[in-house]
């Protein structure tokens, strides 16, 4: 889940810098649920206004020189952008290095679904296509400002969902202080 966790984190960071006009009524929700011998659930509900104030504290050293660094692993933003361009130019599915990227849905419900099979396990991640468009709009870096604007336009809804080996991570925005 290393690379998918990084992308989920980036979306959460982008969500954290939402414009003030919407911050007063929006909430960022994060749920991590693990199954197994010792099931665990972590629930975080944060007012967007609070997260917005914390945004300047985000360490941007994790996104530098065209790559995302997390836990000693690196993902090239150019590679992400190249794969996304291939999808946007008409290929509904791209498989690269054992990872399948697929566009599903139409219009506002259009989403990127990424699947990776590892041994006996699998990882699946879903992100709204408009959010991916915004994140990858800049020439070299991830465009977090554009992503924040996209989140504002999307309003309430799921930003990221990741499923891997009995763990589900979900990040979404809505107008409810407590959810699920």
Question: Would you give an account of this structure?
Answer:
The chain has one domain. The protein is built from six helices and eleven strands. Strand 7 and strand 8 form a beta hairpin. It is globular. Helix 1 packs across helix 6 and helix 5 runs antiparallel to helix 6. The strands form two sheets. Strands 2-1-11-10-9-8-7-6 form an eight-stranded antiparallel sheet. It has 180 residues and is of the alpha+beta class. The two termini are 24 Å apart.
Would you kindly provide a brief summary of this structure?
The protein is of the alpha+beta class. 31% of the residues lie in helices and 38% in strands.
Instruction: Report the structural category.
Output: alpha+beta
Q: How many β-strand stretches?
A: 11
In the predicted model, the low-confidence regions spanning at least 5 consecutive residues are 17-23
Helix and strand pattern: HHEEHEEEHEEEEHHEE
Strand content: 35-45%
Q: In percent, how helical is the residue content? A: 25-40%
Q: In angstroms, what separates the terminal alpha carbons?
A: 24 Å
Count of folded domains:
1
Mean pLDDT: 76
Shape: globular
Rg over alpha carbons:
16 Å
Number of helices: 6
Give, in spatial order, the strands making up the sheet with the most strands: 2-1-11-10-9-8-7-6
> Main beta sheet, described?
8 strands, antiparallel
